[in-house]
Amino acid sequence: MTERSTWLLGAATATAVITVSTAAFVWNNRVDHRDDDGSPVAWSVTAAEVYGREFAVFLDPVAADFGYAGTTFIDAGDTLVTEVGLRNHATDELEGAMMVGIDADNGSIRWRSPAGELGGCAPLAVSDTVFCSAGNYSEEPGFVTIDVDSGDVERTPTDLSVIAIGASEDAVFVVEGNPEDGDLRLHAESPDDPSAEWTKNIDLSASYEDFYGGQSMSIANGVGVLEIGGEAAGFDLDTGELTWRQGLPACSEVIRPSVGGLVTRVGLDCSTYRVENTELIGTGGSVLATADSEAVHRLELDAPADADVSVLLGDGGFDRLTGERRWTSADLISDPIDPTSGMTSPNSTFGTAVAIVGDVALLRDPVDGKESALDLSTGQRLWERQIELVGQLAAGGGTTLLTAGGQDVRATDLRTGRPVWTVPIESFDPGGDSFDSSHTLRRAGDRVIYLSENAIAAFD
What is the Cα–Cα distance from 326 to 437, expressed in whole angstroms? Predict the structure, then answer.
């Protein structure tokens, strides 16, 4: 085992354990909506109730090094882990931050633990443990682990300069080193299988500023992607080997991995940044399909039911395993932009798909102000109307889409276009009378979780 990757095993034996609560700790002010007639809100609790003080806000543990008052939680199965702290209204600084574990089923507070300075955490718990870095600017740099069941915090000092930390369901991944010298390494280790650990050198470079506030590593659907210094590379989660690499001068951008381990790579003209084509890349790095179209589908939500659901490129639906084109639909490409409309884009048209839920895609064309739904098995349009509520999207059960925007959270059956329910945000988030980009609406297990600075709530 390499010296650089012993941090994870060291965390299991570290002696600095800090906690201020037990799993039985519950706030009585938590609001349980289960007895309300027809209310889809299972429970809600405010940051002030969680912290026990006025002016408390939820923070962003994934980007903790930047001190954001944000709305990110770490999915740990039956526990939601996030950060909470106090806002000093005189200085606008955030103080006294703690990690908190919230029962995903009923909203009770399982534990609160002061975690000190954090440089960022993996967005997914592994083996009932949340993995974080202490931050490169911390007085005690190192790795921090938080036990999901108890909230116990353990620290392991290290001299590694951590750039990014991430996780799959069974392994932890860390990028560390000096990006400006191109001296970077990618580590992985499985808490349940120490023999699975590996370390790989990464021949990528960037300035430190490129990493501020951004995620340079994304892991989803069995695929890892690094985006560093204008370049992107896919890596195998089992070995760390790079499966493909693309960047300047062949300008491109990468879209987050989808079901089946697929990655969409968008080719751009380096002088005009006009989209030239889109490629569908398989897990081994091979190109399964290419769409020579300037229409790119930048999905806000990608939640297909399974690998049998078509993936979208240009004006067509493609098989995720073979890359074979199944069908085409003109609805997937926007109407041409009117030069006098004031809309600025290097492309005259673009992809209209904004969400996939189950086997249905939601399309929006702002040029003509319409939205519609497409059956991904046949490519047939299911319905069309003027664009209604615009906001953040999350997948419910089946083909139900939740949208948080304006002053409401709304559930819609995408197959019919009909509303299922609408709930005013102020009914479960005091002071949060409208939804903005800092809020989170995301599925976790069998529920959809809403999180703002002020409150967290669960929808059945």
Answer: 36
CB 412 within 8 A of CB 423: no
Helix or strand holding residue 186 (H, E): strand 183-190
283 contacts 307 by C-beta, under 8 angstroms: no
Side chain identity, residue 338: D
Three-state DSSP class for 15? coil
Query: How are strands ordered across the β-sheet holding 17-18?
Result: 17-18, 153-157, 142-147, 129-133, 120-121
> Concatenated DSSP letters for 37-104?
TT--EEEEEEHHHHHTSTTEEEE-STTGGGT------EEETTEEEEEEEEEETTTTEEEEEEEEEEET
Residue 238, C-beta contacts closer than 8 angstroms, at least 6 positions apart: 196
pLDDT 10s digits, 200-217: 998 888 776 666 545 688
Structure tokens at 9: 């095993």
- List C-alpha distances in Å: 159 to 11, 149, 212, 334: 14, 29, 20, 51
* 212 SS3 class: coil
pTM for the whole structure: 0.84
Both structure tokens of 273:
């940044």
Chain centroid, CA 275 distance in Å = 25
pLDDT digits (tens, 9 = 90+) for 16-44: 343 343 333 333 345 555 445 568 999 99
H and E: helices and strands count for the chain: 2, 39
- Show the tokens assigned to 163: 């750039």
Tokens standing for residue 352 = 């209209």
* Torsion sign (Cα): 136, 192, 202, 222: negative
Given a contact cutoff of 8 angstroms between Cβ atoms, the answer to whether 98 and 89 are in contact is no
Q: Is 181 helix (H, G, I), strand (E, B) or coil?
A: helix
